[in-house]
Structure formats: structure tokens, C-alpha cells
């Protein structure tokens, strides 16, 4: 690990395009020396955290490349905990590349993707969850996503995990001490106490596990397929849904002309609507492909809106669609309520998760439909997000594993197995939690045993 972070890295930190400013960052013990090779004004004048204006000089020719503001962040008070230098040049891609080239010629190495953040992690400035959150923050498509990522980056999940881990470490320490010093006057935890403590930890982990529904919704958003037979108003609904809320991403139309999708944000959550070709019994091959695509879209989407025409009687194709959607959680949207109603909803009420009546033409019911999509999946409050959520599959797997370890421990407890056997599962649980934040544990446990039980007596 140390050899990996022993050298000095450099990279252009702003997107490569023309702009007012462009920033190049250096991190590592030689940052200052490398900088000074092309920024002579910094000689003897570079002060920690004080921006300094000067010229970037091409060392061989003495030519001025650009005027820049340089800020030095002395180790350990920097993002990576190493000496860091930020060079703010003018945002010209040619200049930025030339400055970077000079830095590399003077001994810096081109940073690999994410390497500054990785160093911050390896140097113990942030944990893994925080590092992931920095990535999410940069990738955020909505302000709400950015806010949640920022909370995670400042340690909300790590803070939520901390007391859970502390309880676990304490229980392990007590049990270890009970085993190691059984002959001394150290009390051994009774099975009942272990069971109670285990239950509390498991419940906390289960609540955290459940937070993935909200975390996933925030980070990856939701995709919704719109299906229905031709002319029921799918495309009209698609357009009406996009109308008030500006699309945040304009997707290129799908690989076939049958599927188009657009993403908008509803309450800060990116929602991607997919307009499908009409699903109906195929009469020819081309239509068959369209139907297959629609059903694929349904299978891939988080939710499906089945659109029916409220101004027409229920038809055979509608029935066949309902049959095809059995097994999917779909929402029925009855369109064209501005026209006299002919559709009898009574036989349809059983299957869909919800029914919304709308008019894509007049816009009636569209807002309610948008809100309703979230009512069903559970709204994420800012407060929930503040408390810390698990936001990706890695987190979900590790918390899942930690719960499984506790399940095993519980079984061993029921079978009145010795504490040594329980400990294996508690350690496995701790390992999963530590993997989440990227910490090691042995010291924690040793420290706890030594400080609590006065071993030196
Ligand atoms: P698709 O084939 O399911 O995508 O249906 P379209 O969106 O192309 O709509 C088919 C026809 O129904 C068009 O003539 C629309 O103008 C009309 N239409 C769509 N929604 C409404 C509605 O809410 N009210 C009325 N009166 N007409 C609608």
C-alpha cells in the first residue's frame, strides 16, 4: 500500500473544454518541488493555504505559458492528507495540457481515475463510503441527489454505522475476555444478554438494509415503461408527463424507432419514461419485434403504466395486455377522461397496484399521477437521507452478509454452542461492516480488551 502512494500525481481536475478557468492538481511529497520547476514566483513565497499569483514558465525556454493562481495545501491539512498544489490556469485545453506535460516532465505521474480520492481514503482522511459519495456527488443529475451525496460524503452513513459497530465490538470484547480470562474475576456474558444485544444490533442493521429502497431511488432514480394498445394515448401521455418538468437528459432515441425515452426529475428523483410501441397480437414479423421490445422494456423497467382509452369499451387487445402483464407491478392509467366514459373499470380493479384517471389532452390528473408514482414506492424525506442511507449494491450486499452472520450466531445460540463458535459469526459480521467503510478491526478489539479489563494486573 505505501509504495502505491509514495509518488506524486498530477491531473487536470476540470473538464477538458474551453472555459474561464481550468485547474490542475498535484498530490504527493514532491508537489512543491515539481511546481517550483515551472512556477519560479513561488520560490520562498509559497505559503500554506494562501493563493499566489504568478507566471507559469516553460523551464527550457523561459517562455511564459500562462498566468496562474497557485494554492498550496500543506500535509496533512489537504484533501489527500499529502502536500497538494492546485494550479488555476486560464481554461484553455492547450495550455492545461502543456502545463500538465511540464509537471510530468518534472517528475509527477499522471493520476489514474479517482486516485486523488483513493489517496484520501488510503491516508485515512475519508472512509470508503465517503469516497463513493464523492463520486455520486460529481455524478449527481439533480440537486437533491447532490445534497444527499454531500451528506454521505460528510459521513452520514458512517456516523449511523458507528454505534452499531461499537456495540458489536463491545460484545465481542466481552465475550473474548470471558473466554480468555474465565478463571479470573471477569464475568462471562450470559446467553440471554448476548441474545438481547444481538437482537438490537440485528434490528439496527435490518433498518439500515431497508434504507436501500430509498437510497437506490435517490441515486439511480426510477424507470417507467408506458404500454398500451395503439391510439390509447401513450405518446400523448409521454409528452404530457414531460411537459411541466424540463427533461434533464435527452436520451438518443432507442436502437429501434419503437422505443424512446426521456428523463425528468420529480421531487429531485430522476424518472425515466419509456414510450413503447403498441403491444398487440403480432400479425407480422416487424410488429412481433416491436412487441418483444415493449415487453423487454416492461421487464427492465421499475414500473409499468398500462394505458387504456376510457372513451372506448374494453377490448380484446386490452384483455390480452392485462394477461401479459400478470406478474408485473403495473399501474393502470385510464386516459381520455375529457370524453364520455365507456370503459367499465369494475373487472380491472383487482390487478393493478393503482388506477389513475387522466386526460393527456387537457393535462387533468397528470400531476396526481406523477405524485402517485412516489406514493407507491415510498417517498424519501430529506431527513431520512440526512440520517444516512445505503446507496449501492456493494452496501446492500455487505449489510445483507452482516445480517446473515448474526442469523447464524442466533442459531448457534439457540443450539447452546460455546461462545467461541458464536464469535466466529460476530467477527464475520464485523468484517462485512468494516469492508463497508474500509476499516480494519484487530486494533479496535485488542484496544477494547486491554482498556476495559486491565490485563497488566
Ligand atoms: P398512442 O398510439 O397510444 O401513442 O396514442 P397517441 O398518443 O398517438 O394518441 C392517439 C390519439 O388519441 C391522438 O389523436 C390523440 O390526440 C388522442 N388523444 C390522446 N390523449 C387524449 C386525451 O386525453 N383526450 C382526447 N380527447 N384525445 C386524446
Describe the structure.
- By secondary structure, the protein is an alpha/beta fold.
- It has 16 helices and 13 strands.
- The longest helix has 25 residues, at 156-180.
- The two termini are 37 Å apart.
List the keywords:
457 residues; flat; binds guanosine-5'-diphosphate; alpha/beta
Structural class: alpha/beta
* Ligands (ions, cofactors included): guanosine-5'-diphosphate
- Count helical runs: 16
Q: Largest sheet, described in full?
A: 7 strands, mixed
- As residue ranges, the low-confidence spans are 249-257, 448-457
Fraction in beta strands: 15-25%
Give the overall pLDDT as a whole number.
84
Query: What quaternary form is this?
Result: single chain
Q: What string gives the helices and strands in order? A: EEHEEEHEHHHHHHEHEEEHEHEEHHHHH
Q: Count of DSSP E strands?
A: 13
Form type: flat
The amount of helix comes to: 40-55%
Rg, rounded, reads 30 Å
**What order do the strands of the largest sheet run in, or round the barrel if closed?**
8-9-10-7-11-12-13
End-to-end separation: 37 Å
Amino acid at each position: 500500500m505505501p509504495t502505491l502512494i509514495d509518488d506524486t500525481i498530477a491531473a487536470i481536475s476540470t473538464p477538458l473544454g474551453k472555459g474561464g478557468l481550468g485547474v490542475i492538481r498535484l498530490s504527493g511529497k514532491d508537489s512543491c518541488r515539481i511546481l517550483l520547476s515551472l512556477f519560479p514566483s513561488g520560490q520562498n513565497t509559497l505559503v500554506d493555504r494562501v493563493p499566489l499569483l504568478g507566471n507559469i514558465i516553460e523551464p527550457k525556454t523561459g517562455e511564459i505559458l500562462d498566468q496562474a493562481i497557485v494554492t498550496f495545501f500543506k500535509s496533512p491539512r489537504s484533501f489527500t492528507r499529502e502536500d497538494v498544489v492546485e494550479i488555476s490556469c486560464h481554461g484553455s485545453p492547450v495550455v492545461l495540457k502543456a502545463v500538465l506535460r511540464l509537471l510530468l516532465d518534472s517528475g509527477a505521474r499522471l493520476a489514474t481515475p479517482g486516485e486523488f480520492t483513493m489517496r484520501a481514503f488510503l491516508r485515512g482522511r475519508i472512509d470508503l463510503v465517503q469516497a463513493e459519495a464523492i463520486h455520486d456527488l460529481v455524478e449527481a443529475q439533480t440537486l437533491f441527489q447532490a445534497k444527499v451525496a454531500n451528506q454521505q460524503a460528510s459521513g452520514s452513513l458512517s456516523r449511523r454505522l458507528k454505534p452499531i459497530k461499537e456495540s458489536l465490538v463491545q460484545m465481542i470484547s466481552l465475550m473474548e475476555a470471558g473466554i480468555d480470562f474465565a478463571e479470573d474475576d471477569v464475568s462471562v456474558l450470559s446467553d440471554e444478554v448476548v441474545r438481547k444485544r444481538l437482537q438490537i444490533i440485528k434490528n439496527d442493521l435490518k433498518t439500515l438494509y431497508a434504507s436501500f429502497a430509498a437510497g437506490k431511488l435517490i441515486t439511480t432514480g426510477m424507470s417507467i415503461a408506458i404500454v398500451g394498445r395503439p391510439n390509447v394515448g401513450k405518446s400523448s401521455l409521454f409528452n404530457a408527463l414531460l411537459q411541466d418538468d424540463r427533461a434533464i437528459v435527452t436520451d438518443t432515441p432507442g436502437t429501434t424507432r419503437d422505443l424512446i425515452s426521456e428523463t425528468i426529475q420529480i421531487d429531485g428523483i430522476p424518472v425515466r419514461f419509456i414510450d413503447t410501441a403498441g403491444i398487440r397480437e403480432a400479425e407480422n414479423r416487424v410488429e412481433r419485434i416491436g412487441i418483444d421490445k415493449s415487453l423487454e422494456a416492461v421487464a427492465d423497467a421499475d414500473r409499468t403504466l398500462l394505458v387504456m382509452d376510457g372513451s372506448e369499451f374494453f377490448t380484446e387487445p386490452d384483455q390480452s395486455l392485462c394477461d401479459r402483464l400478470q406478474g408485473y407491478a403495473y399501474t393502470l392509467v385510464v386516459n381520455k377522461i375529457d370524453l364520455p366514459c365507456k370503459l367499465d373499470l369494475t373487472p380491472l380493479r383487482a390487478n393493478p397496484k393503482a388506477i389513475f384517471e387522466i386526460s393527456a389532452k387537457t393535462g387533468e390528473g397528470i400531476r396526481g399521477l406523477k405524485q402517485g408514482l412516489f406514493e407507491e414506492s415510498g417517498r424519501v424525506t430529506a431527513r431520512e437521507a440526512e440520517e444516512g442511507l445505503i446507496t449501492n449494491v456493494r452496501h446492500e450486499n455487505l449489510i445483507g452478509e452482516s445480517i446473515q452472520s448474526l442469523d447464524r450466531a442466533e442459531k448457534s445460540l439457540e443450539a447452546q454452542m460455546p461462545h467461541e463458535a458464536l464469535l466466529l459469526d460476530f467477527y464475520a459480521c464485523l468484517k462485512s461492516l468494516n469492508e463497508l467503510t474500509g476499516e480494519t478491526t484487530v486494533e479496535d478489539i485488542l484496544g477494547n480488551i486491554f482498556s476495559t479489563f486491565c490485563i497488566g494486573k
